[in-house]
Predict the structure.
Amino acid sequence: MNRIRRGRKKGGAPLLDARELRLEDDLAQNLTEDLVKNHALIQDIFRNCSDFVCHEIVSADGRKMLTLYIEGLINTEQLTQQVIGPLQQTPLPKHDTTADGTITSLQESVLPNSSVKTVTDLTTLTQSVLSGHAAVLAEGAAQGLVVSLQGWKPRSIEDPQGESYIRGPREGFTEDIRTNAILIRRKLQTNRLKVESFTIGELSNTKVELLYVEGIASETILAEVRRRLSRIQIDGIFESGYIEELIEDSPYTPFPQIQNTERPDVTAANLLEGKVAILVDGTPFVLLLPYTFWSGLQSGEDYYERFMISTLIRWVRYLFLFIALLFPSLYVAVTTFHQEMIPTNLLLSISEAREASPFPALVEALIMEVTFEALREAGVRLPKQVGSAISIVGALVIGQAAVQAGIVSAPMVIIVSLTAIASFTIPRFNFAVSIRILRFPLILLAGTLGLYGITIGLICMLIHLNSLRSFGVPYLYPVAPFSMRDLKDVLVRAPIWKMTLRPHSTAPENETRMPSGQMPSPDRGTKPDRKE
Amino acid sequence: MNIKSAFVTFTLLSGVLLSGCWDREEINDIALSMGGGIDWTEDEKLLGTSLFAIPSKVGVGPSSGGGGGGEGGGKKNFFVQTSTGENINDVFQKQQTKLSRRVFTSHRRVLVLGDRLAKHGIKNILDYYGRDPTTRLRTFVVVAKDSEAQEILKLRYPIERDPSEAIREIEQLISGTQVTIRDLMLSVSSEGACPIMAAIEPVTVGGSKEKTLKLSGTAVFKDDKLAGYLDAKETIGLQCLTNKLKNASLMATLPGKQGNLNVVGLDMKRKLKFTYQGDQVHIQVDLKGNGIINENNTNLDLSNPKNIQIMQNAVQKTLQKHIQQAIDKAQQDFQADMFGFGDEIHRYDPKRWKAMKDRWDEIFPKSTITCAIQVKITRFGMSGPPLQLQEQEVKTQ
Amino acid sequence: MGSHREQISTAGLWSLMLIFNVASAITVPIGAVAGQDVWISILLALAAGSLIVWTYSRLLESHPGKAISEIAEGLLGNWAGRVVGLFYLWYSFHLGSLVLRDFVEFLSAVALPRTPIPAILFPILAVVVWGVYLGVEVLSRYAQTIYLFVIFEVLVSSLLLFNQFDYRNLLPVLDKGWSPVLEGAIQITTFPFGETVIFAFIIPFLNQTDQVKKISLRALLTGGALLLLVHVRNILVFGGLTSKLTYPTFSVYQYISLFDFLDRVEPLAIVTWILAGYIEISVCLFACAMSLAHVTKSSGYRIYVIPLALLMAQLSRFIYNNHAELIETAANAWPWYSLPFQIGIPLMLLLVSVFHKRKRTRTKGE
């Protein structure tokens, strides 16, 4: 790893200044047999780090030793019991007093803990100490030992906040990458679930893991993901959003091209479809790719409910997608350009309501939509206790007072609230946001060219969507390019026993998910199949 | 990538900047014309009447309901504008000068033609309605029987929003001669049919001065000029022969003062057969249909099939009478083929039609039309014999 | 964009051709001279159109990956290739201007009567340029996204009009004899069916080169069926008025009224017109730019897109003065003017190509 980092630095722009370069030189050195020199080097590396502890002990046979760790990052109790105790009490076998033998026998007989590893260079040693290991250096040995003694407690596994389901597992990812990987591993207990590890971020040294099921995930997509991950150069990664923005296909688009999820079950199911997951240490949001337009309209719960219900719900979502996107602009277009297109009685109602309103419909729509966005934003940011106040104020101010005062017309309030409800039916937050943003240009187009403007806007959107790809998969797949087979999970939610094949776009090499003909019936298996 | 985003911005900007919103018009800047009427004045000019909704008084929203118990009496939720001119656009141009909002005609669903205009001829005014993109071909057309269109449109019709709405609803509810601009254009331009349309007549409400309106039979045109009116019974005859009698109600009298009965849901299907003898056309009309008895003012017990037979005969006879009246009017009074028989010949025997179409106006009045009617009574309501009669009064046989 | 070669799938080509066939022809009257016999004209035109389509797709199938001007170059030499390229450059350019004018004319008539023409013209032109710039692959996928909407919309509107159908409107059959019907058939053959000849610049991008004939004939038949449905529906509703109306389909949509509530659905007609017309204009512009690139031997067509689009917009504005002229040209001049492009050149090239092949096999045999 050291080699990679050094190598990249030569090619890339200098990320570190002179003082840091001296540190780099310290880090580049190997451990020596001289404990005092080692001590000095390490002290130099960790200078001004008050949370760094360097503790000198004497072993059972009188040898000087150093234990190094970051305070709080390791469990001190375990350190005393499992490292310092044995070192002070168990003498080394006599014949192993040679320099190299010391460490080996320490590892073998004194500290027979599986997580103990030998290190020879300072870089690894530093890295290990920083990631929650305790290091032990012994007099006369050019090697050190690191023991994993993680002492800080990750947040416990909780119901995911952003993606809570009525039916489905109640566990969500946490900030700890190990926990997250284990959560997935527990769902997919197979050696074919592969975990490839990357460290990204010059200073944050964030652990990033690439998960996929070997034999299902497409090799071309995998190679592409590896390539894009390994070319990232940045000082720090604090959320998977950083990774997302650094590896996506088209940056200039409102549409997300990578899915994020907090749910291990969703991740596991997607892995089985041939998708690839990227875990980032420090965030519960796992990235899933490739992503298509339709994934934005699917919820994991669709697969847990009965297929008819889920199909119906999906259709409702498609309908509301259109409402969320088009309703305000259609209202503006129809009331200011094409009054002939409103049914007569409805037009009379609208015209009565609009009779006194001071703003043109376009301005009214913009004001109301912006107000709604503000309300929503305020509601999200505020603590829960205050959040309810915002909704009351919003409902009273916008819903009632504004209409009664004649500042906005009642139909517009209905339009805006229906649009708001519609935008909340979109299950993926990042997708819903992009739809909400697109509403505004559409309103403007509707206000200038009416229905023609809206349609032009729609064509723009369709052309743009059709030009997008996520890791080689066309964004609107399986509608365009058309695939009848994969439509069964888009147009409807086919019953589980019908979805015998994996999507062709993500799992072209291994498509069979299960043998066909598993439609349940009381007779299945007891009688010979009628066809045979 | 840059070019792509540049194009998006370009499109959006060109949309926003180029446009001065030429077609943009707020709802409160248009005057919604709900109905229109055309009259022919005595000094030979067109008089156009438009009925506009007053949005603040339409009375659907919460703001208008404020009055609570307030009687709707004084409130008028529409107003009427008239002006005269040489042609329709001239009329509307002049009307516009009296209005603070732009006239918006796309929601005009009823067009009333004045009696005098109908007699004068309507061909000259129709072009506007076929050309104007805001006029819907589905607009209903009616004739103001013995009155003027403006009189009809100025009426107050209490249950509906305005008289035009009343006309539309009445047409949809009971008239078998719903005629839209499409139908009018088709029949005016056709070689073998005369335009017909419903006639609307203002009537006074029992004793009071207030007037409302009623559907009063059918107006029949010869070419484009009003030839005369049919009353309700003749209209039934007309509808029988034009295959338009659907769900009708008919009163029939039994012979020999036995009383009367009423049939509803009367649907008649026609079949035409033409035979030709030189210039003489013989038209055989076979009518078959069924209906339901909903009133029986005789002492006959309807649970007896024989009595049903008597009833059917009475219904058939009544229909026959209505049809004959209609035929007589068409052949003798109007000399106009309001049944569209010429069109039928054109459709099924185009060669013969070619030979006779120029003389159809002479041939039609001389042609013989015979009718064979078969009405089946399928149901007779909730009771067999009349419930109010004592048993000995009921005639079962 | 960039390294990978653009490719369209069979389904993509099919939907592009389908939309191209029906885009304006479902709204504009076709074969109006035939009156209520337009269905006969459409059927006859389908047969004649199949011949046209068969000819050029046979030619393109035997020279996979090559556009018609490249084929001419291969068969008759550099000079002939350029001439053929120039012919189609003009044809697609002219066609594009006509379609563009039609597009704007309809919108101006029914939706934006007081908006100046440039304000309608430039937004669509900008989107067309963008789409053509992104390439034929994106266009074909766009067609795949909307074709279901177009078909669905036609079916639903016909269903809503069911209570207005009068089957006697189709009678009498052949009232005025065969000549108007044949005249209508010729008009329909050249517009819209024969116009698909400009796909000679798009078909080379198809990924399955042996499917050309099958796909283009299938697209023609589907499009023909759709047109048949639409125009028979219009006749059934409007009878003798249909051939007198400027936009019978739009008027038919205005006529829809069900339960006093499901009415005023003409936005559907407008939206379909825009969504589908977009394809028609884009395909013309694409073919135009491609043929210019062939003529000038440039490596890419993209640099020509914007200038050609602007020229097209200019031509579309003074190509005719009013609608009457358009109808007049479309009825009388257009069929004879376009036949050389639609069948003449492809047939000639096909014959030459067959002759060449035969000669080659004969020399080989000896």
The two ends of chain C are 48 Å apart (CA to CA). The mean pLDDT of chain C is 89.
